[in-house]
Specification:
This protein has 176 residues and is mainly alpha-helical. It has six helices and two strands. The chain has a two-stranded antiparallel ribbon. Strand 1 and strand 2 form a beta hairpin. The radius of gyration is 18 Å and the shape is globular. The two termini are 28 Å apart. 15% of the residues are buried.
Amino acid sequence: MPPSLPMWARASRHVGEQRQQSQPHKAIHGLFSGYAIPDPNSLVSAASPDTVAGQLRVWLKLRDVFLYRLRAPPVRVLGNEDWRSLLTLETHQPTATQETKSRERRKNMQDLLTKCLVESNMQGSVNLSNLSAAPTCWRDQNIRIDASNLSPRIIQPILLELCEIGFRQDLLAVDR
């Protein structure tokens, strides 16, 4: 195996020194580390199949918005907590006492998505009020995703696309 580039070796050591697995992503030398799209592993590693299905549904329902914002750099990256909040909007069923907090959270996520579009000099806004009624589409077909039909045949192509897009975004970020 050829020797590694000294700059890459230093950067690799530095990343390992700066962050432990249990810590959230933080700015390293002024750069925010986050995700342009959700981490595929976080979509499928939820404890319950209902949560996994819900996150996949929300990703597919909002996929066009998320991909649209990638078209014009700079792309605002989001931390795991923001992605989790976005992707669990549909599965979170608030009680009567949580209704106000849930409405506020939905409004914050709606504002965040609209802000992402504005920061990318793009037109449009996002309305999440009828998210549960929106169709779940994959490859121009309406599909049903719930805990009872989470098969690799459905999940793998979605995750593969997320991995490919994430890889491209990582390359673009390194190039800037």
